[in-house]
Amino acid sequence: MSERIEIIEADITTLDVDAIVNAANSELLPGGGVCGAIHRVAGRRLAEACRAAGPCPTGEARITPGFDLKARRVIHAVGPVWQGGHTGEDSLLAGAYRSSLEIARTHALSSIAFPAISTGIYGFPAERAAGVAVGTVVDFIEKNQQPHRVVLCCFGRASADLHRAALDAVPGAGAWNRPS
After folding, report:
1. CB distance 89 to 82 below 8 Å
2. In sequence order, which residues have a C-beta less than 8 Å from that of residue 104 and are 6 or more positions away?
3. What confidence tens digit (pLDDT) does each residue in 9-57 have?
4. Minimal CB count within 10 Å: which of 28, 99, 170, 179?
5. Residue 45, SS3 per DSSP
6. Residue 69 in contact with residue 20, Cβ under 8 Å?
7. Total H helices, total E strands in the chain
8. Cβ contacts of residue 25 below 8 Å, gap of 6+?
9. What is the DSSP letter of 29?
10. Three-state SS for 64?
11. pTM of the entire structure?
12. Containing H/E element for 53?
């Protein structure tokens, strides 16, 4: 278990993993932020594949090929827009992570990398989102063999620190691998 979660600071589009997760909108259309970056690097064929795979409800995910990315696949997870925390946002965000992990398990993908879903233009508070992300990932990998490696890919030190703090709050976290 100690080598199954990594928290890194990087550009998710550069990672050599089986799948990267796109923080997608429900129509799976190219957008800004992480979504726009993934679409730019993957190339035009990704938008075509997304049109065929979409739409996708909030809290769920869909899978496409990775095309020009290093990652073989892209899992498009739709997180919630922050509405103040009283409309099920935590549950929907956890669902986006869990659905992505389940797709990775179903497709026998060994490694998956997540961005901080919903924390950009969707406005989900970053600290709260880190707690939901880490809790959902830990719960899933404790019960499942695949994916073997989960990378929480943070775009900046502040996000990485929030994810590390959330992981440190997990009982027994001292045994987890958290490269800086």
Report:
1. yes
2. 18, 19, 75, 112, 146, 147
3. 999 999 999 999 999 999 999 999 999 999 999 999 999 999 999 999 9
4. 179
5. helix
6. yes
7. 5, 6
8. 31, 35, 78
9. -
10. strand
11. 0.94
12. helix 44-53
Question: Residue 48 and residue 28: Cα distance in Å, rounded?
Answer: 10
**Can you list the domains of the chain with their CATH numbers?**
5-175 (3.40.220.10)
CB-based contact 165:130 (threshold 8 Å): yes
In our burial notation (b when 16+ CB lie closer than 10 A, e otherwise), range 61-71 reads bbbbebbebeb
Report which of 25, 6, 39 is spatially closest to residue 114, judged by C-alpha positions.
6
- Cα(78)–Cα(59) distance, rounded to whole angstroms? 6
Beta strand 61-65 with 73-78 is: antiparallel
What distance in Å separates the CA atoms of residue 116 and residue 79, rounded to the nearest whole number? Answer: 10
pLDDT in tens, 55-110: 999 999 999 999 999 999 999 999 999 999 999 999 999 999 999 999 999 999 99
- The one-letter code for the residue type at 41 is V
- DSSP-derived letter for residue 43 is -
Residue 113 parent element (H or E): strand 111-114
At residue 166, what are phi and psi to the nearest 5 degrees?
A: -65, -40
- DSSP code, position 81: P
